[in-house]
Amino acid sequence: MIRFVDVHKSYRVDGKDIPALEPFNLEVADGEVFGIIGHSGAGKSTLIRLINMLERPSGGHILIGDTDMTTLTGPSLRAARQRIGMIFQHFNLLSSQTVAENIAFPLRLSGKDPAAIRGRVDELLQRVGLGAHANKYPSQLSGGQKQRVGIARALANHPSILLCDEATSALDPQTTASVLDLLAEINRELKLTIVLITHEMDVVRRVCDRVAVLDAGRMVEHGAVVDVFLHPQHPTTRRFVNEALPEEAAGEQMLYQRVPGRIMRLSFRGEATWSPTLGRVTRETGIDFNILAGRIDRIKDLPYGQLTLAMRGDGVDAALSALREADIDVEELAR
Amino acid sequence: MITTQVPLLQTVFPNIDDWGELGHACVDTLLMLGGSLLLTVVIGLPLGVLLFLTGRGQLHAMPKLYAMLSLVVNILRSIPFIILMIVLMPLTYVLVGTKLGIRGAIPPLVIGAAPFFARLVETALREVERGVIEASQAMGASTWQIVRHVLLPEARASLWAGVTVTAIALVGYTAMGGAIGAGGLGDLAYRYGYLSYKSDYMVVTVFLLIVLVQLLQMLGDRIVAHFSRR
């Protein structure tokens, strides 16, 4: 478990303290994929670097298991860092070394013997699907392949935590998807805790279990991705969610004013997505509805649906309570 | 072969009567160059690494030490070599027991070139991507490991370019040194070509120096190309 206790951070610029992160508390459970989303300058880069002490907090404690990272220095800090893998937006591979040498690098740093290193490197190359590229140099690889090398290197010392610093931001959508799949697979198979920062809600939706939203150094919202995604509270969160669903955000308000009836948003998740509840309820209550917008998708492995409906008829209230009983979230947008 | 060549050379360069002396001067220049380049790298490389590490915002930022080192380097770099050589004569005598010849030339050559090379090293290391250094820190690398396994290998192409530039600067320094008793090609050019008006000496030594510089640059470029991976 990673725990942030009353952590805050400010930078001294020209004799003045500029706050980068306002005090916050946060817990990341073992084995979960935790996302931190925010615009550039929101402090997410600082936050993720607090975990391995690339940045030291101005106050508070960061605990990994029972170890208070803020108390570590020198060799004990270096030893702790070897158990935390990290990957980067721009990969940060050694350009003078081959793929295999890059993956071997953290093993050499920790003083493993050459035979053990060779075996481990082969294993890692297989895991990230780069077996054929062992002797190439980074400049000969595509962005997605470079990130795979980064991932293999980060996993070399069997870390319990993997930090991802905008790991897919420099990649095209297709490559992003394959890298995210790999991260999800690693999380599943190695029971690794993953903390990732991103500015894309879609990355959060695909791989994260929980998410925290940062806005100008303040943690404005955090919780399970499903909750934050389906019911965003803070304006910044809403903007991020809308970015992931542009077609729905555009012209939403205009549309509602033109349609007669009560505008309701229904959110299904999990099992509710598969049962014909809406059909049954409309039949039973005799209401009429019109679908204005909708989508059925997945949040990580959880299927969900969200429909915006215009409902008409005498039985609307009865229908709403019937839907709520069937575990469907109902939200009234306009009357 | 020799009998036919010598008269030809004698017709073109009538004043050069001892070709052996010229060959000897070449060897002296090469010895001075080799010796001083080696020592320059041995002293300049760690100095450059220290400059880099103690610089603003770097791994071991130490503003006061950096300012001091930087000042010393700048002072040594701002003194024209021929003056530096004269100023250093007492020190040279203490160090190598003579002010003359190849041995006497090496201390001033190294003291003149090492700060120059150190600056080139500092610049080369600054070009190493910060992200790569940060990644190494995140992997738990110590400063020494970062220098040894990240900074120097990543910067090796620029470092070799720096060695090449320094070697060529040293060729110029050795020629100047020749004028005040160091021997070598500069000595010949100065004594015969300038003081005795034997301009054919000047032509030949200048030609040999051009060839030497060309060869150094070509060799340097090849090494740099070999190590360039971007």
Explain what the structure shows:
The complex is a heterodimer of chains A (335) and B (230). Chain A is an alpha/beta fold and 335 residues long. Chain A is 37% helix and 31% strand. Chain A folds into 2 domains: 243 residues, Rossmann fold (3-Layer(aba) Sandwich), CATH 3.40.50; 84 residues, ACT domain (Alpha-Beta Plaits). In chain A, the strands form 3 sheets. In chain A, strands 6-7-8-3-9-10 form a 6-stranded mixed β-sheet, sandwiched between helices. In chain A, helix 3 runs parallel beside helix 5, helix 4 packs across helix 5 and helix 12 packs antiparallel against helix 13. The mean pLDDT of chain A is 91. Chain B has one domain: MetI-like fold. Chain B has 11 helices and no strands. In chain B, 83% of the residues lie in helices and 0% in strands. The termini of chain B are far apart. The chains are: A alpha/beta (335), B mainly alpha (230).
CATH fold type of the largest domain in chain A: Rossmann fold
What is the domain total for the residues of chain A? Answer: 2
Topology pattern of chain B, helix = H, strand = E? HHHHHHHHHHH
Low-pLDDT sequence parts of chain B: none
Mean pLDDT of chain A: 91
The CATH architecture name of chain B reads Orthogonal Bundle
Assigned CATH superfamily of chain B = MetI-like
Question: Judging by the overall fold, what is the CATH architecture of the largest domain in chain A?
Answer: 3-Layer(aba) Sandwich
CATH topology of chain B: MetI-like fold
Tally of contiguous helical segments of chain B: 11
Quick summary of this structure?
The complex is a heterodimer of chains A (335) and B (230). Chain A has 335 residues and is of the alpha/beta class.
